[in-house]
Write a sequence for this structure.
């Protein structure tokens, strides 16, 4: 499977982004542009990662930034939980180094 | 001899009166002896006034001396002949007026003397016509000679030049004396002469009456010029060709300008291989060369016979439709131009007689005339270029000629773009197929993976072999780990499709939201994340086999789409309206009870019946225990080779324990267990962790309903009795049931003969 399907469900209170497939390569930029467009709207942001099968290093970095930007993740599989935790920790370390 | 006597003697009076010409009878001295009524009327004298008078009375005074001389000359040697051949003869009336005449003299002799008959014809009208004709010829000559930019000349029926105007001299450089009487081939290039072009041009003109051609012609100095030549035929009253008239113009400058334009046009178009970019380039370039109020391209879909009309940017239309208009071939001007491969011009659209959607569209937008130019490339008609103007009669012959050349360039560019698109599609498909096959290679499946000799396995293999040769859809059923995929692959390899791709889709492994795209493909931009076009697995499996594993996990909302694709043998990629024909042989597999799922509404019955055309039940390992030792040895060898081990011994007690075990995970569980055993073995003897088996109490049957368990049990017994129900060894006896009771239970549990 080579692609990532991104489904956005926006309401007055917030936005839910559902990801299905692989968060790798060019799809990371695709998600980033979707994320940037929804952050212009007000409200909460929830990212459903339950149907994500793979995340590469760029994807992890983006997830870290999204988390830092206030996004909440819905995860189920232990591996995905682990990747998300790594992504958050990695971005926090990056920020600390920057400071 | 008197005149009366002569007339009586020859009895000519009545004959003379009946003739339309004036007739005079004179003697050797030129005295008038007789005349007819027409002579009285012509000269204005009465008979008596002329009888006995010299004939010179009827000749103008200035010509009387010459006339007398001519008469004497005639009398010296009388014979029938015209008087004054080559002279403009004139006669004189009584009132002194003159008239032009032709005179024919004939002698009459009887041995005693002779007389002369003069037949005099008034040629006033003829002379008048001749004069008019002369004047006209003079006008025409002056007109022709005043035209300096046209080479106008004539040839006889054999092609010899008989007339050469100053325009011809100026255009071709030959003086009249250099070409008159010579064959017209001196004006052609040697190559054209060798090809017989001068003769073929005359033949064509003779057949059609008039032809117009363009080609290279020679000047006197040997240089060439591009000539536009109109040849017309002049025939005599019998219809035979007498002359050819030629009007030739030097179009060299025009040709060079047109070629420069076409080259620029061609360069712009040929660099565009993307069909959308090409349409934009055609639109902008075309409008610079030919201003029109409407332009569109009609492309023929050869598979459906439908024509898709794609409007090019039309500046005068504020709401130009971007989506193609779909029209039928028959009855439409596009269809006419496609079929005939000829240019179609309609000078007044409203009276055209065509009633296609495009005509109505054009009329509604104020277009009055239009032109359809066939786009032909490599002898293949691709579509038409459609142009329209707001004024009537906007497309004359010359305009159509120019547009035809543009259409040729457009056709070539479209053909290239379509070929590129086709190649790109094949390349993408090959890339996808390559990637898929690389994945497939990693799975290392082959026939040898099917291991065992048990009757139940042999039955399955026999069924697979039987159904493989057909195109029937196969539903492979069986518990998890029983090798359903191996059976599916075996069917493909035994089928006529064995040389094409076997494409697997695991419905359970792909997120539900992606499965549709995975199966049917998508166009770029079909949804967020669809950053490129993707070919679906069904399209990838075209001409091959599609294996839908875990079909029981196919989302309910996707099932009708799959059913439709299977029945209609065509799909549409997500985000596309174009149908793609696919020829796919389907094999589905599941470990779930689809029949039960149909009852509970989790699986559509129509799809279920479409799938279970030929069900194959792969038995669980516990029903083929005799195969377990073979499988143990096979997996031991496979994994020890892979790990560079040499394991030759499998202890009998190990084999016995493995054979006894009920293997709920079937062959997959057995293989994993053996792989673990090979890892744990350090010597040549397989050290299987049998404690693992003992530590797990024989697991209870999988959670299932009583009804399902009863169904499975009855089915197993039926299989063992090979479907025999009654009799001492029949299934009813073995189950301790009456035959009628078993039949009733089978009906209730939905067990059919083909399930056995």
């Amino acid at each position: 499977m080579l692609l990532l399907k991104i489904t956005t469900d926006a309401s007055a209170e917030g936005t839910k982004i559902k990801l299905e497939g692989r968060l790798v390569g060019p799809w990371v930029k695709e998600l980033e542009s979707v994320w940037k467009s929804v952050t212009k709207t007000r409200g909460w942001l929830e990212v459903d990662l339950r149907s994500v099968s793979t995340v590469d290093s760029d994807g992890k970095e983006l997830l870290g930034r999204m988390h830092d930007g206030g996004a909440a993740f819905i995860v189920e599989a232990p591996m995905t939980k682990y990747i998300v935790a790594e992504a958050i920790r990695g971005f926090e370390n990056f920020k600390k180094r920057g400071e | 001899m008197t005149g009366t006597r002569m007339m009586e003697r020859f009895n000519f009076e009545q004959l003379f009166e009946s003739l339309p010409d004036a007739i005079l009878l004179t003697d050797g001295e030129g005295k008038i002896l007789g005349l007819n009524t027409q002579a009285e009327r012509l000269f204005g004298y009465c008979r008596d006034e002329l009888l006995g008078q010299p004939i010179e009375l009827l000749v103008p005074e200035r010509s009387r001396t010459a006339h007398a001389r001519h008469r004497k000359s005639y009398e010296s040697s009388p014979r029938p002949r015209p008087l004054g051949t080559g002279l403009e003869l004139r006669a004189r009336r009584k009132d002194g007026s003159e008239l032009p005449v032709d005179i024919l003299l004939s002698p009459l002799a009887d041995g005693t003397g002779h007389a002369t008959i003069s037949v005099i014809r008034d040629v006033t009208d003829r002379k008048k016509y001749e004069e008019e004709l002369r004047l006209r010829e003079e006008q025409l000559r002056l007109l022709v000679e005043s035209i300096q930019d046209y080479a106008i000349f004539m040839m006889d029926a054999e092609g010899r030049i008989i007339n050469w105007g100053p325009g011809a001299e100026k255009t071709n450089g030959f003086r009249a004396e250099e070409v008159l009487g010579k064959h017209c081939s001196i004006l052609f290039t040697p190559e054209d002469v060798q090809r017989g072009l001068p003769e073929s041009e005359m033949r064509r003109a003779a057949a059609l009456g008039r032809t117009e051609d363009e080609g290279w012609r020679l000047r006197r100095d040997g240089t060439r010029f591009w000539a536009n030549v109109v040849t017309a035929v002049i025939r005599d009253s019998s219809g035979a060709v007498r002359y050819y008239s030629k009007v030739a113009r030097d179009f060299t400058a025009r040709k060079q300008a047109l070629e420069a334009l076409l080259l620029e046009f061609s360069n712009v178009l040929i660099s565009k291989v993307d069909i959308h970019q090409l349409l934009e380039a055609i639109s902008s370039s075309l409008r610079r060369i030919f201003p029109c109020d409407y332009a569109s391209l009609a492309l023929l879909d050869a598979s459906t016979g439908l024509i898709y009309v794609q409007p090019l940017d039309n500046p005068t239309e504020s709401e130009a439709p971007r989506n193609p208009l779909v029209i039928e071939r028959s009855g439409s001007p596009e269809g006419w131009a496609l079929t005939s491969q000829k240019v179609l011009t309609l000078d007044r659209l409203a009276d055209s007689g065509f009633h296609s959607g495009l005509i109505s569209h054009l009329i509604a937008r104020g277009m009055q005339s239009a032109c359809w130019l066939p786009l032909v490339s490599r002898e293949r008609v691709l579509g038409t270029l459609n142009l329209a103007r707001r004024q009537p009669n906007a497309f004359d012959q010359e305009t159509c000629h120019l547009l035809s050349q543009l259409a040729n360039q457009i056709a070539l560019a479209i053909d290239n773009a379509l070929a590129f698109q086709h190649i790109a599609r094949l390349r993408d498909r090959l890339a996808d197929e390559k990637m898929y096959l690389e994945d497939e290679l990693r799975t290392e499946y082959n026939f040898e993976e099917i291991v065992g000799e048990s009757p139940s396995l042999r039955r399955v293999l026999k069924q697979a072999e039987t159904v493989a040769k057909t195109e029937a859809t196969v539903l492979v059923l069986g518990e998890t780990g029983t090798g359903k995929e191996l059976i599916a692959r075996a069917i493909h390899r035994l089928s006529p499709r064995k040389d094409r791709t076997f494409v697997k889709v695991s419905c359970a492994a792909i997120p539900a939201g992606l499965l549709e795209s995975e199966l049917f493909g998508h166009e770029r931009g079909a949804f967020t994340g669809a950053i490129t076009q993707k070919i679906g697995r069904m399209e990838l499996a075209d001409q091959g086999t599609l294996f839908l594993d875990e079909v029981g996990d196919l989302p309910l909302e996707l099932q009708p789409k799959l059913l439709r694709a299977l029945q209609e043998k065509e799909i549409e990629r997500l985000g596309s309206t174009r149908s793609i024909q696919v020829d796919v042989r389907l094999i589905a597999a599941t470990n779930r009870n689809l029949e039960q799922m149909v009852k509970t509404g989790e699986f559509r019955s129509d799809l279920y019946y479409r799938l279970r055309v030929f069900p194959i039940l792969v038995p669980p390992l516990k029903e083929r225990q005799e195969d377990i030792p073979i499988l143990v040895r096979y997996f031991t060898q496979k994994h020890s080779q892979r790990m560079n081990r040499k394991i030759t011994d499998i202890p009998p007690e190990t084999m016995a324990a493995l054979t006894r075990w009920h293997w709920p995970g079937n062959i997959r569980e057995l293989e994993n267990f053996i792989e673990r055993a090979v890892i744990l073995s350090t010597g040549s003897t397989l050290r299987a962790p049998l404690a693992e088996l003992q530590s797990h109490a024989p697991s209870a049957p999988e959670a299932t309903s009583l009804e399902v368990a009863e169904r499975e049990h009855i089915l197993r017994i039926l299989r063992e009795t090979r479907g025999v129900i009654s009799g001492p060894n029949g299934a009813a006896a073995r189950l301790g049931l009456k035959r009628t009771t078993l039949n009733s239970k089978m009906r209730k549990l939905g067990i059919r003969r083909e399930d056995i």
Q: What stands out?
A: The CA atoms of residues 73 and 84 of chain A lie 8 Å apart. Residues 78-98 of chain A form the longest helix (21 residues). The helical segments of chain A are 26-39, 57-68, 78-98. Chain A touches chain B at residues 1-8, 18, 20-21, 26-27, 30-31, 34, 51, 53 (CB under 8 Å).
